[in-house]
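Hi F.,

I've been meaning to write this up properly since the lab meeting, where we talked about keeping a consistent format for the predictions we share between groups. The idea is simple: the sequence comes first, exactly as it goes in, then the structure tokens exactly as they come out, then a line or two of notes. No screenshots and no reformatting. I'm using this chain as the first example so we have something concrete to point to.
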Amino acid sequence: MAVYTIYDLALQTGVSYHTVYYYIREGLLEADKIVGTRVRIFGDDGLARLQRIINLRNQGNSIESIRAILIKENDNAKDL
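Output, unedited:
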């Protein structure tokens, strides 16, 4: 499993550190682990989720719409 920090996610996806952090603050992206008080660690699932968020945002979806879509996708995945 790959390990990513916020900075790594930003580099991998082409968005800024601040954009990644914004999605975290909005509750769209959650770290797998927090080291100390500041370092957030993400895995491959976190990278995939961020890519999904970026794609939805690029399609013109609002943050609230993205939140609803992700919740629905998560619920559907649990039903499988």
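Notes:
The first strand starts at residue 33 and ends at 35.
Residues 63-79 form the longest helix (17 residues).

If this format works for you, I'll send the rest the same way.

G.
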